Amino acid sequence: MPAPAYILALMLATGVTLATWLQPQAIMWNKSRAQSGNLLNIAMGDARRLFANHFFTKADVYFHSGYYPSIFDQGRKSENHIAEQAGAGGGADHDEHDYLKPPRDWVEAFGRNFFNTKHTELTGAGANEMLPWLRIAAELDPQNVDTYIVGAFWLRGEMKRPREAESFLREGQRANPDSHEILHELGRLYRDNFHDRDRARTLFQLSERKVEAQEKALGQPLFEAKRENLIAIARIEEAEGHLAEAIKYLRQLVAACPPEQAVARGEFEKQIAELAAKLPPAR
């Protein structure tokens, strides 16, 4: 039977070994914790993005009044409908329509009388139901800029809470300092809700600089993002009576138009001509 001294020595050696192995792990864990500031993120790791997508989809379920068709009922798009609505600026139709394909026989047609098959969407205060899911999604995956843009879109629009929309977007901006999308949405907020053209112009210009930096990094144009920013700036300049400035931004847009956007280029050139006709004659 081993002497107590040997047992104590073995325990001491084991403790020293464990301490030597655990100390670097603890240092790395503390650094990670300091960087993220969120114990949940540390515990879940990259799996949190999967949960974030789940909660983002959950918000889409509430957006559709609690009914969501399965993948067998529709060819589900890669983008959630609430994201489409936010990206469209609220211009998409809200009409009810049937999600499902025509019934194959009278039995299936009769069965549909007992469950919801209609595409319905929340409006007004009902949008409150989906906001908690968006906030959880943002907490789990703060790098998903769509979550902030969608949440802010509904807060500043249907729900008439622009200050909360700004706070949510600022949170997203801190997590994604290079996001041109969040800056553009902040510009829309200041233009449409706070009616502050100067601040909106500055935000659109900052967004455009982020677009240019990203184009340079990627080595490819981001025409849709550039168009949104330049048109927004040109409209503000026109509203302020700075027609020459508005023309300058529209000309930048014409120069950026890809060959397949010939129709859009023609429309921008027409707008430039209309603005040029309003300029005072040169002395």
Structure overview:
This protein is mainly α. It folds into two domains: 44-100 and 117-177, no CATH class; 191-283. 66% of the residues lie in helices and 1% in strands. The protein has 13 helices and two strands. The chain has helices at residues 4-36, 39-44, 47-63, 81-87, 106-111, 131-140, 145-156, 162-175, 180-192, 197-218, 223-239, 243-256, 262-278; strands at residues 97-98, 118-119. The protein has a two-stranded antiparallel ribbon with strand order 1-2. Helix 12 packs antiparallel against helix 13. The relative contact order is 0.06. Residues 32-37, 64-79 and 90-99 have low confidence and may be disordered.
Task: Lay out the secondary structure.
Layout: H1 4-36, H2 39-44, H3 47-63, H4 81-87, E1 97-98, H5 106-111, E2 118-119, H6 131-140, H7 145-156, H8 162-175, H9 180-192, H10 197-218, H11 223-239, H12 243-256, H13 262-278
Antiparallel strand pairs: 1-2
Q: Which characteristics define this entry?
A:
283 residues; 13 helices; 2 domains; mainly alpha; 2 strands; two-stranded antiparallel sheet; 66% helix
User: What is the molecular shape?
Assistant: elongated
- Point out poorly predicted stretches: 32-37, 64-79, 90-99
What series of H and E elements makes up the topology?
HHHHEHEHHHHHHHH
Distance between the termini: 111 Å
How many H/I helical runs?
Answer: 13
Oligomer state of the chains in this structure? single chain
> What integer is the average pLDDT?
76
- Judged by helices, strands and strand pairing, the structural class is mainly alpha
Instruction: Say how many strands there are.
Output: 2
Tally the structural domains: 2
Tell me the helix content: 55-70%
